[in-house]
Write a structure and sequence with these properties.
single chain; 2 helices; four-stranded antiparallel sheet; 29% strand
Length: 80
Amino acid sequence: MTVTLLQGIIRGILYGFSRCEPGSDIKIQIRRREETIWRDYAFVSDNPDAVQSTLYAATRSADGVAVRAVDRSGRIVDFR
């Protein structure tokens, strides 16, 4: 991982966790576009605004990454 990517992920995690609520239902996952393994990035409530803002923060904080939101059953809610 490059330093820029790592810094972006850390910034995004801090932003995402600042919007988390206890018992969050949606998991935000991130991966580099050339990788196949998704990593947990943040957990947010199922509020659409919280999901959208965290996805936006993740895509803006690191270049060359794919981001998705997954519910508790593993169904993809959103993808960028």
